[in-house]
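In response to the reviewer comment on reproducibility (Comment 2.3), we provide here a single inverse folding case reported in full, input and output, so that an independent group could reproduce the run without further information from us. The C-alpha cells appear first.
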C-alpha cells in the first residue's frame, strides 16, 4: 500500500493518524462539557419550588420521602456569606452555611407526609417560606 510513498511522508501520515485517534479517544473519555445549570442541580428529585430574591434564589426539590434545598447566587464571584436551611415540621433544621462562591447546600431532610420550612441568605439578603409542600 505504501510502496510508492517516501519514508518521511509515511512517518508524517502515521503520526497524523495517531494524533487523530488520540484526540477522538480523549473526547470520548471526557464526555460532554457540563453547563452551569447542570452544576447547580445537585439535589435529587423533581424541582418543586423556586423562590427568587435579591442576589439569588432558593431552589427546592422533592422525592416521595425527601426534600432538598439549595441557595444559588445569581452570579458566581468572590466567596461571600451564604446559608440555606430546611426544617421538616416536628424535626430539626438542616443547615449549610459558610463562605461560598456560587451555592450553599444541598441540605436534605426526610419529609414523608410532612410540611417543610426553608430559608436562604446570600450576602445578607434572603428569603424564607412558611410551611410548604404539605
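Designed residues, in position order:
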Amino acid at each position: 500500500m505504501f510502496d510508492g510513498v517516501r519514508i518521511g511522508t509515511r512517518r508524517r501520515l502515521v503520526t497524523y493518524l495517531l494524533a487523530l485517534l488520540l484526540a477522538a479517544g480523549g473526547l470520548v473519555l471526557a464526555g460532554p462539557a457540563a453547563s452551569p445549570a447542570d452544576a447547580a442541580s445537585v439535589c435529587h428529585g423533581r424541582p418543586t419550588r423556586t423562590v427568587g430574591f435579591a442576589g439569588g434564589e432558593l431552589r427546592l426539590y422533592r422525592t416521595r420521602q425527601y426534600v432538598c434545598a439549595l441557595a444559588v447566587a445569581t452570579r458566581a464571584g468572590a466567596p461571600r456569606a451564604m446559608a440555606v436551611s430546611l426544617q421538616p415540621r416536628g424535626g430539626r433544621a438542616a443547615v449549610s452555611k459558610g463562605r461560598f462562591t456560587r451555592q450553599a447546600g444541598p441540605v436534605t431532610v426526610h419529609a414523608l407526609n410532612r410540611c417543610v420550612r426553608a430559608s436562604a441568605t446570600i450576602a445578607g439578603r434572603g428569603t424564607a417560606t412558611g410551611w410548604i409542600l404539605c
